[in-house]
Amino acid sequence: MRRACALCIFVYGVIIMDRVKVSYAVDLDDVPRVADQIYEEAIGDLQKVLSMMQGVIFSEQSIPVLSEKVRQIRTSLARIDQRIDDCYAITAGYHSSIIEPEGTVASTVQGLPEEQHEQVMNLSGKIAALQRAMAGSEDDGQ
Q: Which position has the higher pLDDT, 96 or 126?
């Protein structure tokens, strides 16, 4: 049976730019390809931002026009930053799943406030138990 890597993303009351994180599972072997795809999209978005920046002329444009262009650039850069962070999180999770024996939970969770660490570890344990139960029911059905 091929192992799958599930990426769990927790929303804890913070909405950034009306965006929602989405998580899904892919085969472990596909994780590097997915991370590369997201990264390539970020590079394309960065090239668009560069074009936007080249269109800003501080000495010739009115303050309202400059304000809107700068807002758009900053918003785009924040989205690119988030995509790069997603790539890092995906890659870190991938490496952890390769290094750690199957069925174990990472001893540390990166990027979360300390008070949420225990919640994440408990949830990870529940997810692992559910995966074991599902794997057992698949074996029973065959």
A: 96
